[in-house]
Amino acid sequence: MPLPQPSVLPRDGVVAKWNAELAFRSVVEATADKAGLDFLRSLVKNLARALDVEYAFVAEFAGSEDRVKTIAFWGGGDWRDNVEYPLAGTPCERVVSGQFCLYKDEVQRLFPDDSDLAALGARSYLGVPLRGANGLTLGHLAALDTRPMQEDPRGLAIFEVFANRARVELERLHAEAVLQRAREELELRLASAAQDLALTRQSLDLASGELQALLAINQSTARHLRREDLFAELARSVKPLLPCERFGVEVPTGPESLRVHVLALDQPARGPMIEDFPSPGTACRWAQENRSRYVAGARAELRERFPRTHAVMEREGMESLCALPLLREDKSFGALFFMSTRRDAYRAIPVALIERVASAVAVAVDHCFAYEEVRALRDRLRAENVYLKEEIREEHNFGELVGKSAGLEKVLSLVETVAPTPSTVLVAGETGTGKELVARAIHERSPRREGPLVKVNCAAISAGLVESELFGHVRGAFTGAVEARTGRFEVADGGTIFLDEVGELPLDTQVKLLRVLQEREIEPVGSSKPRKVDVRVIAATNRDLAREVDAGRFRADLYFRLNVFPIVVPPLRERDGDVALLAHFFADRFARELGKPVHGIAPDALARLDAYAWPGNVRELSNVIERAVVLARGPVLDAALLAVPGAPAPPAGARATASAPSLAGAEVGSSAERAAASEPPATLDELSRRHIVATLESCGWVVEGRRGAAIALGLSPSTLRSRMAKLGIRRPPAA
């Protein structure tokens, strides 16, 4: 039969016929120093008096949700015995379902099956549910009267305030009861057999150890940002909590590969072990993909399902395994595992404990990986910035491949063919033919065009620093290595590296370069940990590498690795018709750069340029045209301005307006200078070469240091070496 509908009171309405303020004050004063059951007894007694009702009680569930029992019952001016009764057919049934209920009159008629109402002579009823902090009903507070009750909004507020206090005290009683039961259970365990005592101690130690371990894991996130240090700290934190002789983290390195970091906790001197494995056939991959833990009580369980994991455990002498995913939000980014020499080491450990450990480790590892990504990006940007600054400082004597000769067209055709592929390219040709431009053209037409093109002049790097420049070094790798340096190969990751003058590399460096080409990984100086790089290699040389191989100055295996797709850039003397095109190109460019009103080249000048053999190739032509533009006094370059053999000397006025820089130690107006004036004018490169050679000879061919030629010339050592390589300056054997 459906329950009678009471006056279901909203939170802003109910009850009675008393002065609300006086009632509230009297109840507060009577219960202020009470707690627990004393408070509940005092509450119902003083509520009954304040509300001027006959009965008031607090009840809680009696072992099930369909029965309740009173724990404080005041009625008829005295304490009454507590009673237990079923909820069905009583006005309390709707209250414990979560409603404030008021039955103002005729409550016995509404609930004829409730014999207790008749025995009490009750006519009206008010009930308030007592809900715990979790939202579940703990019991209820009720008032009954032998007279009708009237509605009063102020009354509900008072009743609700004390109902909330009653709820708090009822929760306190429940907590004390739970605590009391726990205390009694603990006392029983302490009084029981030694085995029970050991289990109790183990449980308490486990709880304490869990808190300490989780705290240590959380603290390690801030203290350790290097992967090796973090994993070692995590292993130390977990060891007291879980039985394990091997602690490890596995991280995917590709769709079908992973890298495992293992620490042998029973062999601390062994240090961390880092290995790369194919991921199929590993328990950690299963845990990561399924985002679920995997526990094996015996190694034999893994033999068929996870053969790679079985092989590792067999090698290490481990018997049981627990693997868990490392989760970032809803994604798995790796796996955590424990191994033990004992069988079934992890089956009895609470799942909640293992998952809490895995969650804390995941946060620490994710934080570390994020820091590594930021640090790697920072280092790469810093290295790229350094490289770009060096590129800006370098002189680019020509900017494009200009010409229509058959030889150049063939080169451009080969560039278009090889550019879309990842193949290694070897560009050969005389000095000044434009090998770097060919390399840039290949890069700009390749799928790697968005990545960096990093140039390395192998001839400009001192022999002792070649490996550091190419592969980088770690801090402390050698004297003066005060901080780590990112090598050019790592800077070029995702792009192209251009190894100019590759024939100048020392033999020991050639071995390491061969490994990079074969394994696609580098090993910084001072480090034993290889790093994967995705770099396309374009090499260039002005030497005949085949002859260098025969002479023992270049490794044959490296030569064959580099010579996958050779491109030979023809010298300028073999490029019919290109001299005039290049001359006009350079004249226009230098006129813009120097702000000179030069708009053309005289026919006799073009004929003289075309007749010259150009041993310095395009670079020499660029220098000749630049010098002519500097000396030009009109809009057309004529033959008199050209510093090539067979060309007339420039007019006296032109020489006076743009005299060549004096060499160190040369006396102005000396006989040597007058003799030189009768010879064909030197090119800018020739003047620079003479000046640098003279300075080197005066410094005993010392480049660096306070007595070196670099300081005397006002250049950095690396810039001086670069210019020496560019101008073909080598130290004489006897020097």
Summarize the topology:
Elements: E1 7-8, H1 20-31, H2 36-51, E2 55-61, E3 67-75, E4 78-79, E5 84-86, H3 92-96, E6 101-103, H4 107-110, H5 115-120, E7 124-131, E8 137-145, H6 153-191, H7 194-223, H8 227-238, E9 246-254, E10 257-264, E11 273-278, H9 283-290, E12 294-296, H10 307-316, E13 320-328, E14 331-340, H11 351-393, H12 406-418, E15 425-428, H13 435-444, E16 453-457, H14 466-471, E17 472-473, E18 485-486, H15 488-491, E19 496-500, H16 507-519, E20 521-522, E21 531-532, E22 536-541, H17 545-550, H18 556-562, E23 565-568, H19 578-594, E24 600-601, H20 603-611, H21 617-631, E25 636-637, H22 652-657, H23 671-677, H24 684-698, H25 709-713, H26 717-726
Parallel strand pairs: 15-22, 15-23, 16-19, 19-22, 24-25
Antiparallel strand pairs: 1-6, 2-3, 2-8, 3-4, 3-5, 6-7, 7-8, 9-10, 9-14, 10-11, 12-13, 13-14, 17-18, 20-21
Brief rundown of the structure:
The chain is 45% helix and 17% strand.
Descriptive key words:
Beta-Lactamase, 26 helices, 735 residues, 45% helix, 8-stranded antiparallel sheet, alpha+beta, 5 domains, 6-stranded antiparallel sheet
**Which range does the strand content fall in?**
15-25%
Quote the CATH topology of the largest domain: Beta-Lactamase
Shape estimate: elongated
- Helix- and strand-based class? alpha+beta
Count of distinct structural domains:
5
Based on DSSP secondary structure assignment, what is the total number of beta strands? Answer: 25
Q: For the residues shown, what is the average pLDDT?
A: 79
Low-confidence runs: 8-18, 392-399, 647-679
CATH class of the largest domain: Alpha Beta
Measured distance between first and last alpha carbons: 118 Å
Number of helices: 26
Largest sheet: 8 strands, antiparallel
The level of helicity is: 40-55%
CATH architecture of the largest domain: 2-Layer Sandwich
